[in-house]
Design goal:
single chain; 5 strands; alpha+beta; two-stranded antiparallel sheet; 97 residues; 3-stranded antiparallel β-sheet; globular
């Protein structure tokens, strides 16, 4: 496995593993703070991370990070994000498609 460095403190004391959800049927997810209120939908605005194969943990500062599908993240944030968030990330056109 290649050497990894912490994204926060640049330490080399990084351990890889998997993020697990014990009680959630759908697995771990990311829900942006800037979601527009009062959405009525059958789809969750969360970006589900269950397909993420690997996470990393820095043993020096405690940061845990992982990767996810950026196309799915852009789609959901473009659909459910606040106007300010969509504008900041250039996702205004995502909401229209």
């Amino acid at each position: 496995m290649p050497d990894r460095k912490c994204l926060q403190c640049d330490s080399g004391q990084v351990v890889t593993g998997n993020l697990k959800a014990k009680r959630d049927v759908f697995g771990p997810s990311f829900l942006a703070d800037e979601i527009a209120p009062a959405w009525l939908t059958t789809e969750e605005p969360d970006i589900f991370l269950k397909s993420t194969p690997q996470s990393s943990l820095c043993m020096d500062c405690g940061l845990v990070w992982l990767s996810t599908d950026t196309k799915e993240a852009a789609r959901k944030l473009g659909k459910y994000g606040t106007g300010e968030l969509k504008s900041r990330l250039g996702l205004d056109e995502e909401a229209e498609s």
